[in-house]
Amino acid sequence: MDYETVTMKRDKDCMYITLSRPERLNAFDLQLGRELYEVLQKTSKDDRIKVVVLKGTGKGFCGGGDVKEMHKATDKPGFLRELTKIIHACVLEMRTMEKPIIAAVNGASFGAGFSLALSADIIIASHHASFGTAFIGIGLAPGCGTQLVSRLIGYHKACEYILTAKVFSAEEAKNLGLINEVVSDDELESHVQRYVDLFSSFPTIAVGKAKMLINKSLDNNFINHLELESITAAYTAGTKDFSEGVKAFVEKRSPRFTGT
Question: What is the pLDDT at residue 116?
Answer without folding.
Answer: 97
